[in-house]
Automatic annotation (TrEMBL):
The lineage of its organism: Bacteria, Pseudomonadati, Pseudomonadota, Betaproteobacteria, Burkholderiales. Belongs to the FAD-dependent glycerol-3-phosphate dehydrogenase family. Keywords: FAD, Flavoprotein, Oxidoreductase. This is Glycerol-3-phosphate dehydrogenase. It catalyses: a quinone + sn-glycerol 3-phosphate = dihydroxyacetone phosphate + a quinol. Its cofactor is FAD. PROSITE patterns: FAD_G3PDH_1, FAD_G3PDH_2.
Amino acid sequence: MTSLTPIASSETYDLLIIGGGINGAGVARDAAGRGLKVALCEQNDFAGATSSASTKLIHGGLRYLEYYEFRLVAEALAEREHLLNIAPHIAWPLRFVMPHVKGLRPRWMIRLGLWMYDHIGGRITLPHSQSIGLDRMGAPSGLRADITRGFAYSDAWVDDARLVILNLQSAQEHGADIFARTRLAGAKRNNGVWQCELENSISGARQSVTARAIVNTAGPWVAKMDQLLNPSSQGSKHAAVKLVRGSHIIVPRLFEGEHAYILQNDDKRIVFMIPYEDKFTLIGTTDVPQENMDNGAKISTEEEAYLLRAVNQYLAKPIGNADIVWRYAGVRPLFDDESDNPSAVTRDYTLVLQDAENTPCVSVYGGKITTYRRLAESVLEKLAPWTKTRRGSWSNQEALPGGKFKRADRAQELDYLKKKYAQLDTHFLTRLFGRHGRNAHVILKEAQTPAELGLDFGGGLVQREVDYLITHEWAYQPDDVLWRRTKCGLHMTEQQRAEFSVWFNERCARRS
C-alpha cells in the first residue's frame, strides 16, 4: 500500500479520479464497491488541504436554514445518521449549547429553527433540542455569569482527515488503485477514452493510463483542472469557483463538560467552541474570500482577532493571542452563485458534466464533509449512461475499516481493547481506538508492554503505530503523521516534533 507504487495495470480504468480529499475518496469507494475499475491520484498527501482543515463536524448546518437551504440541511441531517453508523470509531454525537443573549436572534426564531432542525432530516436518533438553564448544566459553563439561558441541540463530531483515509482504504479493499503524490500531468480525449499522463510528484517518473471517464475532485483547484481537461469549452460552459477561507485557532480547554458551544456573533455569523483532543478547545470558523491557492491557506491576524473577539463576548475569562497553541486554515471551493456575502454562498455541491466525444468528465464544485457520501452517489448517477455497475447504492450499509460494530457498542469495544492490553496506558488506548477502531488490534498485535510498542515519540505517538501508518495509510512525510493521520503533534513539544521528523525521514530513506 506504499504511496509510491508504480502503476502496473495496462487495462483501461472506468474512472480516473483527480484529487484525494473527501469527495474524491468517497467517489472512489462508492465506484469501486459497485464493481467499476477505479484509479485515484493525489498530487500531495490525502486530505492535505481542505479536508483536514474543517471544523470537524458532521452537521446539517443550523445556520443554513436562514438562507433557505432546506434541501441541503435535510440531506445533511440524513447523512449524519449514516456516518454515525458506518464510522462509529471516528465519529460520535455531540451536544451543542447556544447561549441566548439579547439583541441578536429572538427566542421565537431560534425555537422555530431548532424545531425544523429536529424534523426535516427524516428519522433522527439523536436527542431533540430543548431550552436549558446554563446554571444547571452540572459544571461551570465558562461563560459570563449574566448569561443564564440558552438552547441545546444535537449534531456530531468527526476526525475529518481520518474519514478520508478510511474511505480510501475501503476503496482499495474493493479493488481501486490509489496513488498518493501523483499528479495529472496531461489528459486528452482520443477515440472514446481519456489518454492521461500521471507524474510521480517525488521522482518525476511518468506513466500513461487510459480511462473511460474522469471525475475532477481537485477541491480549491477544481476550476483550474476543469479548464485543463476541457480546454475547448469556453465562457459560460465553465463553472466558476469562489474560494472562501475558513480559519481556526486551538487554545487550552476553556470549559468543562463534553458539549460544544455555538455562539452568535453581532455580524449574524456563528462561531463554535468545541472540546478537542481532551485538553483543548477548537474555535472556528471564519468566512474570508481567498484570491488563489498560490501560497496555500493561512490564517490572518485579522481572522485571529475576529475569533478571539467573538468568543470573548461570552467567556468569563477572556483569552488572547498568547493562549493560541495552534492554528490552521482551509479553503472551501464553493460554487460561485454570485453572492457578495461569503457566508451566504451556498455550501451545496454542483456537478458539472462535460461530454465531448462521448468521453465524460464530471467536475465537483462545493460540498460539505457531511454530504460527501451522497455527493459520490450523485456523481455515479450522473455517469450512469457511460458506466456498467454491478450494484446500486451501497455505501451507507458497509462500515468503514475498523468500524464494524454498532454505534451503541462503542464503549464495549473500547473496554475490550483495554482489557486485552491491560498493561498499556488506558488514555493511550482510548486515543488509538478513536483513530483506528478495531484496527487498533491490528496495530498492537501481541504487544503487551510499553517497551513492545517501540520508540515513544511523545504525545501518545509510538513507533508501532507509525510503522502501520507508513505501510497501510500512505504516510510519507512527518506532517502526514503528526497532523493528519493523528493529531499527536498537538500534544508534543516543538523539540519532540523536530526529533520525530528526523527519525521519520531517516526511516523513510532506509525504506526507499
